[in-house]
């Protein structure tokens, strides 16, 4: 068998739930020996169908770490490990006896990764970090008006939890790479609240002294991206003749024209005033008229007919709203093999989410089905006495030389990408110290014109502006490649030769280069060259159906680009890790549709007898009585109460012993059976109390319940002390903003090393310096600039 990126890495997994499970699934898929530590009775996620997927390739050991015997066994396991992952609340691991400070003394090479909800400091650090609770408290449920009422919208997609798992993998690999230089492990931390900054595509770069104005501007909800609201002309959700909905994404003048021609509305372009649609219209009445014409045209054919026409055109962004179960059979999922077929001993033949990245030299593969509870306890514990306290990948003993101050210091990554999904992936690496050189056209990346998003995708990077359509420009690219460790690009496949990006040729220049194509639909199948966009991937991934609530028309869930960026960053880290293991570079490919499947991986699977995916209620308040938004006397609160002990604490805090004694509510199963009755009981109980009182009362009994409508994400980002006390909002300086400004902090922190929060660069700001660095003389630089092959400017766009 071929080598894998994480061969020989042993991971001890103490985590619970989706985020940690996805992190260790990715590591196991890439060769790591993952030992999952489960409590007696099993981890909570075993009750979900997704455990059969998330647990694949891992070994299960049952330990009661609250006992001295269990704790001693856990510590002994840790002595044999490279990595430990946990997601306890801050301080809990220390109290149990498995905190970083203690374990690093018995295993100095240990990379110890923690995922929290709100971070380790600040007023909310002790609140349970359930995805819905973090979303509610940070204002992320108060972003768009719901369908049938006033108030917040239940966040049914665990996007922060999912993202935390991917970010954790990135931090773990960065720390392993740093360990090769220092000989030491370290503590790596991330949180759901940090990951929320990655999913919030707006930068919210706020100049110092302008906080009050920005808070007011960001305090309002954004317009609803749903069929019953007015939408941008480029992004529309339209209904077809068969009643099904299609998400349109025609966000450029060129793509929109293809769309209008396919609809038979090309006659509008006879009037020059319409030539810049979808951005410019003669008047607002004309914009509304075009909206109406589009809707009328789309009603004339079934969704399948329209999709066939859009795919045949090849230049139109569009996808139907489907369920996660339907997505696993999507044409492009099939064509690109973005799934694994597994024979599970419990459910039989099973189709599961595929690899996060296709790797040509060190391919991912499933090591086996999810384990039975405690299946490996006896064998693993017995082996510890034979193995002794060492790791297969013993860190090098490092002597002399400078110690790196940043985890990815010394790595150079070339970026050739636009929009968000590609460029933000390298932003994540730049925060860990990688040198990112952004190669953009001489007129600048078109993303620069979308200011609040582009700042976020260009910060921490050097910019060189080249005309790659010229031979001289391509020769500059090739010189850059000889000095690089990795290259990431997201151009469509049919432009590679023109831009000099064919991997077969680039490999000849630098065989150690990690080459990532951050694709949309992949390189195979009928939609391989079709553009994909933020909302179209959300539509087919099942996210839009889930967000909208049972029986409602769909909503754009706004997750496609951030999910893709986070996955591409994970892929780059796996590629660098594989390069250090094998000494060779390779071709790699991520797909936005594959990252979408990871974002909904709690239901992206299929086997005979699999339960139906649940949807939130039509009012968009939640899944059931104990995971739900409730109206209070003065607003709304979010309650999440998943366990029996939390249910008991809830009843006690509300002085409702009668609910505890009621047989209809005695177990999780019986509570679900009588959910509508319990919902009514709790709604009556909570609607007479103010939100603040409810929050204080229930949090005092360790029941997760917080206000859900007293802020918005933008206001929380700017004003809430939780952001600043944890370094999730920091200061930077840039002439783009006239000096100092606020920006989001890094998504990871490291105990022994720093992270970086630099400013964005201007178009080609570093062109001359980089050209000189790779061997061009001053006269050559002047000539190339005069001929338009290169550019250096002090312009943003």
Strand content: 15-25%
The number of helices is 33
What's the CATH H-level superfamily name of the domain at 625-710?
Answer: formyl-coa transferase, domain 3
* Estimated helix fraction: 25-40%
Oligomeric state as shown: single chain
CATH architecture of the domain at 625-710: 2-Layer Sandwich
Distance between the termini: 49 Å
Class by SSE composition:
alpha/beta
Strand order of the largest sheet: 13-19-18-17-14-15-16-28
Strand element count? 28
Mean pLDDT: 92
What do we call the CATH topology of the domain at 625-710?
formyl-coa transferase, domain 3
Which residue ranges are poorly predicted, with pLDDT under 50 across at least 5 consecutive positions? none
- CATH top level label of the domain at 625-710: Alpha Beta
Question: Mind telling me the C-alpha Rg?
Answer: 26 Å
The major sheet is characterized as:
8 strands, mixed
Q: Helices and strands in order, then pairings?
A:
Elements: E1 10-13, H1 18-29, E2 33-38, H2 51-54, E3 59-62, H3 68-79, E4 83-86, H4 92-96, H5 100-106, E5 111-116, H6 131-137, H7 159-182, E6 187-191, H8 192-199, E7 206-207, H9 211-218, E8 235-239, E9 245-249, H10 253-263, H11 284-298, H12 303-313, E10 318-320, H13 324-327, H14 331-335, E11 339-344, E12 348-353, E13 358-359, H15 377-387, E14 412-416, H16 423-431, E15 435-440, H17 451-458, E16 461-466, H18 471-482, E17 486-489, H19 496-499, H20 503-509, E18 514-519, H21 534-540, H22 543-548, H23 560-582, E19 586-591, H24 592-599, E20 606-607, E21 622-624, E22 627-631, E23 636-640, H25 644-653, H26 657-661, H27 668-673, H28 675-686, H29 691-700, E24 704-707, H30 713-719, H31 721-725, E25 729-734, E26 739-744, E27 749-750, H32 767-773, H33 778-786, E28 790-791
Parallel strand pairs: 1-2, 1-4, 2-3, 4-5, 5-6, 14-15, 14-17, 15-16, 17-18, 18-19
Antiparallel strand pairs: 6-27, 7-26, 8-9, 9-10, 11-12, 12-20, 13-19, 16-28, 21-22, 22-23, 23-24, 25-26
Helix pairs in contact: 1-7, 7-8, 7-23, 9-30, 16-23, 23-24
């Amino acid at each position: 068998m071929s080598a894998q990126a994480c061969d020989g890495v042993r991971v001890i997994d103490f985590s619970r739930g989706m985020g940690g499970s996805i992190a260790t699934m990715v590591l196991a898929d890439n060769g790591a020996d993952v030992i999952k530590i489960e409590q007696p009775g099993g981890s909570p996620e075993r009750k979900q169908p997704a455990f059969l997927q998330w647990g694949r390739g891992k070994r299960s050991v049952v330990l009661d770490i609250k006992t001295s015997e269990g704790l001693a066994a856990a510590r002994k396991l840790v002595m044999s490990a490279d990595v430990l992952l946990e997601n306890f609340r801050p301080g809990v691991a220390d109290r149990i006896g498995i905190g970083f400070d203690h374990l690093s003394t018995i295993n100095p090479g240990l990379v110890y990764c923690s995922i929290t909800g709100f971070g380790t400091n600040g007023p909310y650090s002790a609140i349970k970090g359930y995805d819905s609770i973090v979303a509610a408290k940070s204002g992320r449920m108060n972003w768009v008006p719901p369908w049938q009422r006033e108030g917040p919208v239940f966040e049914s997609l665990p996007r922060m939890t999912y993202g935390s798992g991917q970010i954790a993998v990135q931090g773990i690999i960065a720390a392993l790479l740093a360990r090769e230089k220092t000989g030491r492990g370290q503590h790596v931390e991330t949180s759901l609240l940090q990951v929320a900054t990655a999913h919030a595509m707006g930068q919210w770069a706020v100049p110092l002294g302008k906080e009050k104005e920005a808070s007011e501007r960001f305090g309002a909800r954004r317009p609803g991206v749903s069929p019953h609201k007015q939408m941008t002309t480029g992004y529309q959700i339209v209904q077809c003749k068969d009643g099904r909905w299609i998400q349109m994404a025609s966000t450029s003048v060129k793509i929109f024209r293809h769309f209008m021609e396919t609809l038979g509305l090309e006659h509008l372009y006879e009037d020059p005033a319409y030539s810049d649609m979808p951005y410019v219209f003669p008047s607002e009445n004309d914009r509304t008229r075009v909206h109406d014409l589009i809707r009328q045209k789309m009603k004339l054919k079934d969704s399948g007919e329209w999709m066939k026409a859009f795919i045949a055109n090849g230049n139109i962004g569009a996808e139907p709203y489907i369920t996660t179960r339907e997505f696993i059979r999507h044409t492009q999922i099939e064509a690109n093999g973005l799934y694994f077929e597994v024979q599970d001993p419990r459910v039989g033949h099973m189709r599961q989410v595929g690899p996060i990245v296709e790797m040509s030299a060190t391919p991912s593969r499933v090591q086996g089905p999810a384990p039975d509870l405690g299946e490996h306890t006896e064998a693993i514990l017995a082996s510890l006495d034979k193995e002794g306290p060492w790791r297969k990948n013993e860190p090098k003993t490092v002597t002399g030389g400078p110690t790196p101050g940043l985890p990815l210091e010394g790595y150079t990554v070339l970026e050739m990408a636009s929009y968000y999904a590609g460029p933000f992936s390298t932003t994540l690496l730049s925060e860990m110290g990688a040198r990112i050189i952004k190669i953009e056209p001489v007129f600048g990346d078109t993303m620069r014109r979308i200011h609040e998003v582009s700042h976020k995708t260009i910060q921490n990077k050097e910019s060189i502006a080249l005309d790659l359509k010229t031979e001289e420009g391509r020769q500059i690219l090739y010189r850059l490649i000889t000095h690089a460790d990795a290259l990431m690009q997201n151009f469509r496949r049919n432009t590679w030769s023109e831009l000099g990006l064919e991997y077969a040729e680039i490999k000849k220049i630098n065989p150690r280069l990690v080459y990532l194509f951050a694709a949309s639909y992949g390189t195979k199948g009928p939609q391989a060259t079709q553009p994909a966009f933020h909302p179209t991937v959300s539509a087919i991934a099942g996210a839009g159906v889930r967000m909208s609530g049972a029986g409602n028309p769909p909503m754009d869930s706004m997750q496609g680009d951030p999910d893709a960026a986070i996955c591409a960053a994970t892929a780059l880290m796996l590629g660098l890790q594989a390069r250090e293991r094998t000494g060779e570079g390779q071709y790699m490919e991520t797909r936005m549709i594959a990252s979408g499947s990871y974002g909904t991986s709690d239901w992206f699977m299929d086997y005979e007898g699999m339960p139906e995916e649940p949807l939130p209620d039509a009012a968009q308040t939640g899944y059931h009585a104990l995971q739900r938004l409730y109206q209070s006397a003065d607003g709304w609160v979010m309650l999440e109460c998943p366990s029996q002990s939390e249910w008991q604490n809830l009843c006690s805090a509300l002085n409702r012993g009668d609910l505890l004694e009621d047989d209809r509510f005695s177990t999780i199963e019986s509570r679900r059976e009588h959910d509508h009755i319990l919902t009514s009981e709790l709604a009556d109980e909570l609607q007479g109390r103010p939100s603040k009182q409810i929050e204080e009362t229930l949090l005092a009994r360790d029941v997760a319940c917080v206000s859900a409508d007293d802020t918005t994400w933008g206001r929380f980002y700017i004003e809430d002390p939780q952001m600043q006390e944890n370094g999730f909002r920091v200061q930077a300086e840039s002439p783009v903003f006239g000096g100092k400004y606020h920006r989001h902090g890094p998504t990871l922190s490291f105990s022994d090393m720093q992270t970086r929060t630099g400013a964005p660069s201007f178009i080609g700001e570093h062109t001359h310096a980089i050209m000189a660095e790779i061997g061009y003389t001053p006269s050559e630089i002047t000539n190339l600039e005069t001929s338009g092959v290169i550019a250096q400017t002090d312009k943003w766009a």
